[in-house]
Each structure stands twice: as C-alpha cells, then as structure tokens.
C-alpha cells in the first residue's frame, strides 16, 4: 500500500489556534452570563460549530432555545473572526512538515472543522500552496467526530481514505479520521488523546519525515 494522501487538521495541528478559540469561547461564556470551567473547556477542544455551542449551553446549564443558540453562534463567529485577523502562531515543526510532504509530491488536503470564512483567514498564515484540496466544517453534512470531513477530503483528492494518513491533535479529530478509515498520526496539543488501533503518536511535528508517514500507513487498524 502506498501513501496516497496526507490529510492535515488545522487548529492545534498546524496552527496554535486553539488558544484563539479558547479566548472566544471564554468570552462567549461570560456573554451568556456564566464562566468556563476547565472541564467544559476540555470538552470543547476539537468540537465543531453547532456541537461546540451545544456543549457550551449544556455546560453552563442554559436552556437550548434555537434562537439563543443561533445568536450565540453568530457572536462567537464574529469574535473569533476578529481574533483570527491578527497573527496566528504555528505549531512547532508544522511548516517544515508541510514542506516535506509537498516536496515528496504526495497529495495533501486541509481538513478542518472550522468554518470556511475563518479557515480562509488562517490560510493567509498557513499558505494555500501546500494543499490540493481544503474541506471546512460547514461544507459537509456533519463535522468531526463524524467521518464526513475526511471522507470528503479523500474524495476530492481522488484517493481511498484507507491509503491516507491524517495528522490530528485532538480526540475528536482522531476519531473522525479513524472512522473515515484513515491511519492517524496523533500530535497532541492541549489534551491527551487515547491510544487506539490505527493511531501512531508523536510529541510534535518537529523533524517529521515522509518515511515516518509511510510507516504510519502500515500500522494495523484492528
Ligand atoms: Mg485540531
């Protein structure tokens, strides 16, 4: 089996953007009249838009009236858009890892739960030339942890997901990639990710080689 594609998560994997989301959701919690506990914050890492709002409302013990949830969603989107317009820091080794995959000529996609407008702001930092396709959370029926984003990315690359390696930092993202049939290189950022078949762990992206990605593809999925 040859490595047919490398599928990159964005928040927490390429960019240290979870910190920006952290600021956004903390401020949202205050806006909603509550405060964010560490437990709630952890539950939110890697969660998608509607899912993240559900977790916030549940965590704060608020009634999930559709109009209130929608208003909170608009508030959060506006705030993180402001925050993402500033510089977003890279994760260690991420830029070099992207370059290594590009130099090897392996098809690559960005696979993010973040919605397209904010993802585009991040792509101004990351660069669009690394990717043959980009998939955002608002472009698939269900975001991570559902397999949809990874299935869509493999489809756009025209490769089987089973021949792809996804690179993820969160339990939610790793679950999504695994459910799509991808092997997963897990590089935890904010929180630990449980081990599972088909997952290989690495401390950071520093020094990542294409040979290692080929090796990830060879790990058993069950
Ligand atoms: Mg992530």
TrEMBL record:
<keyword id="KW-0378">Hydrolase</keyword>
<dbReference type="InterPro" id="IPR036412">
    <property type="entry name" value="HAD-like_sf"/>
</dbReference>
<dbReference type="GO" id="GO:0016787">
    <property type="term" value="F:hydrolase activity"/>
</dbReference>
<dbReference type="Pfam" id="PF00702">
    <property type="entry name" value="Hydrolase"/>
</dbReference>
<dbReference type="InterPro" id="IPR023214">
    <property type="entry name" value="HAD_sf"/>
</dbReference>
<dbReference type="InterPro" id="IPR006439">
    <property type="entry name" value="HAD-SF_hydro_IA"/>
</dbReference>
<protein>
    <submittedName>
        <fullName>Phosphorylated carbohydrates phosphatase</fullName>
        <ecNumber>3.1.3.-</ecNumber>
    </submittedName>
</protein>
<dbReference type="InterPro" id="IPR023198">
    <property type="entry name" value="PGP-like_dom2"/>
</dbReference>
């Amino acid at each position: 089996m040859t490595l047919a594609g490398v599928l990159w998560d964005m928040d927490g994997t390429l960019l240290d953007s979870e910190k920006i989301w952290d600021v956004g959701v903390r401020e949202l919690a205050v806006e909603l009249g509550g405060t964010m506990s560490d437990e709630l914050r952890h539950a939110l890492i890697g969660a998608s838009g509607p899912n993240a709002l559900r977790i916030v409302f549940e965590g704060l013990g608020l009634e999930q009236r559709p109009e209130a949830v929608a208003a909170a969603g608009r508030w959060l989107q506006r705030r993180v858009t402001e925050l993402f317009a500033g510089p977003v820091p890279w994760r260690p080794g991420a830029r070099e890892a992207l370059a290594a995959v590009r130099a090897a000529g392996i098809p690559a996609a960005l696979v993010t739960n973040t919605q397209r407008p904010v993802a585009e702001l991040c792509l101004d930092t990351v660069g669009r030339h690394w990717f043959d396709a980009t998939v955002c959370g608002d472009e698939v029926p269900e975001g991570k942890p559902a397999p949809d984003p990874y299935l869509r990315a493999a489809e756009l690359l025209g490769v089987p997901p089973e021949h792809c390696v996804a690179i993820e930092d969160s339990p939610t993202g790793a679950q999504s990639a695994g459910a799509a049939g991808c092997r997963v290189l897990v590089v935890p950022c904010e929180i630990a990710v449980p081990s599972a078949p088909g997952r290989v762990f690495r401390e950071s992206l520093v020094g990542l080689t294409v040979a290692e990605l080929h090796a990830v593809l060879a790990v058993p999925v069950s």
